[in-house]
Amino acid sequence: KKQLSAYFEFYNLKRPHSSLDKMTPNEFYYDQLPQQNKVA
């Protein structure tokens, strides 16, 4: 179970994907979230 968890962590957080323009799935997901209003 630990090995599977480690693989999912690698796959989603560390491994760049060519179909996501070399981003990790995690980076891609958070990049797609709407930008929150920022106070200047």
TrEMBL record:
It comes from the Bacteria. InterPro entries: Integrase_cat-core, RNaseH-like_sf. GO terms for biological process: DNA integration. Residues 2-25 form the Integrase catalytic domain. Pfam families: rve_3. This is IS3 family transposase. It comes from Acinetobacter wuhouensis.
